[in-house]
Every structure is written in structure tokens, then in C-alpha cells.
Specification:
Largest sheet: 7 strands, parallel
Shape: globular
Radius of gyration: 18 Å
Strand content: 5-15%
CATH topology: Rossmann fold
Strand order of the largest sheet: 3-2-1-4-5-6-7
Structural class: alpha/beta
CATH class: Alpha Beta
Bound molecules: 1,4-dihydronicotinamide adenine dinucleotide, D-galactaro-1,5-lactone
Length: 269
Amino acid sequence: MPAPRTVLLTGAAGGLGTLMRGLLPAYGYDLRLLDVRPIEGEPDAITADLADKKALREAVRGVDAVVHLAGISLEASFDKILRANIEGTYNLYEAAREEGVGRVVFASSNHAVGFTPRPVGDDPLIAVDAPHRPDTFYGLSKSFGEDLAQFYWDKHGIETVSVRIGSCFLEPSSVRMLSVWMSPGDGARLFHAALTAPAVGHTVVYGSSANTRLWWDLSSARALGYEPRDDSEQYADKLVAEQGELDPANPDHAHLGGHFCTNPPVWPY
Ligand code: NAI
Ligand code: 15L
């Protein structure tokens, strides 16, 4: 596959989309932006819902690749997750198939494997082939998205890198995030590697910085050419002083998904 230049960025109005809008053009990409919400200062952005198949088909026409961030990014009712994340991601892949787009970078999440016990002490890092153990309907939609990506590769030859993102924000805001944080700069480095690595088929990677307290194995991301430069440890003294170290007896601290496993933000559904 030739190096992609024109890239559709879905979810471009969101937190990660805003960060990537700022960082990815430096790698030479010409970004086409899409979100269900208008984007201030971006008059050419496409305002469209993932439910709008015609708009999606026009949005992907002529692009070399898609970075798919759009969707509900936290727990919500199954009906909402179904529409935005499950049907919406299917609609995006169908549009890509119809328009001959060869590669997708899919924003999966650590919550696809959220019920995996977190490593403690000398436990090995969590491998990328850990079975899906979604911690929410949200995490379930990311497990589905990864399977959908595998299906579109096997059946239709569309390549995907599914990035199980940890927490990509300007700074980590909890002791858990010291293990799963991905700095925005490392996020852009990882998305760039996912867009340009040759012959990825469907590859699943964890998305985080080179954190001292890292929980998962980054080797499949490094195999794409990703070289993380940041480490959350610079924030550790402050966060640990405020919140204390993770407590193995605290159910909120027992799994990769943290409080998503124990206290969904939305309940009952
Ligand atoms: P966000 O909630 O800030 O942004 C999501 C964007 O998607 C919003 O601008 C929203 O308007 C748009 N959107 C939602 N439903 C849509 C629909 N039906 N059609 C078109 N656009 C729609 O979330 P954030 O943090 O920017 O995350 C981006 C992606 O990365 C999400 O898929 C999220 O699940 C994933 N992710 C993010 C992590 C993070 O640390 N920020 C961690 C793990 C995964
Ligand atoms: C996610 O998947 C969410 O989209 C993000 O907002 C964070 O909550 C992140 O996971 C996390 O696990 O910290």
C-alpha cells in the first residue's frame, strides 16, 4: 500500500480528535474531518451522523485511509451504543468497502479487555491476544469493532490496526492512568505508524506511552514502527500523594478497566 496522504478523521470534534487534528498534519496528512457536531473554526468539516450511509460514502470517497474515532466514548445505554458504535462502525466499514478504501485505524479501547485482572508485582504484562473481556456495553462495542475489523480483512481485504487505547489526555489524572496513559504526542506517533506500516492485515495493539508502570505488552505496536517517547512517571509523585497507591483489595483497582468494571457511569440502563 502506498503511504496514505488523504485521511478521513471521524470524531474530529472530540477530545482525541481535537488533539489529533493538531498533531497529525505535521506527519504530512491532509485531513478530512467528520463529526456529528460542527467543529468551530473548521468550515470544511463534514457534519454527519455515522447513521447517514450516504454521507459516509461521500466522506470516504477518494481518501487513502480512515482514522475512526467517532462514537460514544463512555458507558451508555445499549440502544445508544448499538446505534453509534456498533451500527455506526459497520456503516463506516461498508462505506470503505464500497469506495475501495484500503486501511482503517480503529479506536478500540482497553475496555474491550477491561475485566482482565491487572498485573501485580512480577506478573507478566497483558498480551495483545488476551481474550475479550468487555467491562461495559461500551467495551462490548469495542470488542465487536475489533471482530468487525478482522471480518473486513478476511472477507474484503480492508486492513485495520485496532488500537486499544488506554487513556489519551494531556496529562494522567489518576494513579490508574499512570499505567495506561498515552500522551497525545505518542498517540500521534502510534496513529502514524498504524497508517504507514506495510501489510498490517488486522493487527491489534495497545495504545499507551512507555510508562514505568505499564500494564500491557507494546510489542505489536512497536512492530509497526511505534517508538513511544513519553512516560507518565513524571506525574506519579503528585497523583500518589493525592490518591495513594492502587490497593489490591479495592475492587475498583482489580482489573484493567478500573471503575468501569464496578461502577458504570450510567446505571440502570
Ligand atoms: P469524545 O467523546 O470526546 O469524542 C467522540 C466524538 O465522536 C465526539 O465529537 C462525538 O460528537 C462524535 N460522535 C459520537 N457519536 C457520533 C455519531 N453517531 N456520528 C458521528 N460522530 C459521532 O471521545 P474521545 O475521548 O475523543 O475518544 C475518541 C475515540 O477513541 C472514541 O471512539 C473512544 O471510544 C476511543 N477511546 C478514547 C480514549 C481516550 O483516552 N480518549 C481511550 C480509549 C478509547
Ligand atoms: C476509554 O475508553 C474512554 O473513552 C476514555 O474516556 C477513558 O475513560 C479511558 O477509556 C480510560 O480507561 O481511562
